[in-house]
Amino acid sequence: xxxxxxxxxxxxxxxxxxxxxxxxxxxxxxxxxxxxxxxxxxxxxxxxxxxxxxxxxxxxxxxxxxxxxxxxxxxxxxxxxxxxxxxxxxxxxxxxxxxxxxxxxxxxxxxxxxxxxxxxxxxxxxxxxxxxxxxxxxxxxxxxxxxxxxxxxxxxxxxxxxxxxxxxxxxxxxxxxxxxxxxxxxxxxxxxxxxxxxxxxxxxxxxxxxxxxxxxxxxxxxxxxxxxxxxxxx
Length: 234
Ligand code: UDP
Fold this sequence. Notes:
single chain; about 230 residues; alpha+beta; Phosphorylase Kinase, domain 1; D-amino Acid Aminotransferase, Chain A, domain 1; 2 domains; seven-stranded antiparallel β-sheet; five-stranded antiparallel β-sheet; 6 helices; 14 strands; binds uridine-5'-diphosphate
């Protein structure tokens, strides 16, 4: 499929128009950023790996009846997706406490969260993507009541599908970030699900298998992303 004009360029992806105004091409880059882009680097072939992992996970979610923007994998780095209008919120689901939650609340790293915890962050780089409450979301008119309720229901359903999927492949799904968008009045899952947007720990060894290796300079980045792809594809 022919790529049209560049509609948007983010930290890890580019979005291109297609001849069909209802569809876009998501192009996955090798660029990696952390701490609101204060730390930058590249991970060899990360774009290829994340496109393939996202494709596998979106297929799994579509089979489970969860609506996603995924249409088809076009090439190593390109995914055809429905053209959505993005909700300016990041929806984070957590099964264990780590990362910003531990810093904010002083919890013990790795603490089990049962039931899982859901948080919203306002997608606004200038403000460093702050945590927002549902009242903040109403105040800022980022989502209406129905959209809020649907995002929560879908996020927990996605956790219920992904957690056993990763477990069967020897990985603990610690937490993950989702983005939703509207496609012709329907709220659907958009963006990507990959080791850039999830935390995954090896069940046996506890080894970190995600972007925290980049954030914390733990090394073996390429091998780790390839390992997750291998396990997800098995
Ligand atoms: N996350 C993400 N993009 C962001 C912030 C977080 O994909 O801009 C993911 C992150 O990889 C993790 C989850 O959301 O899986 C929760 O991240 P957290 O709030 O702990 O943030 P961090 O400690 O990474 O700043």
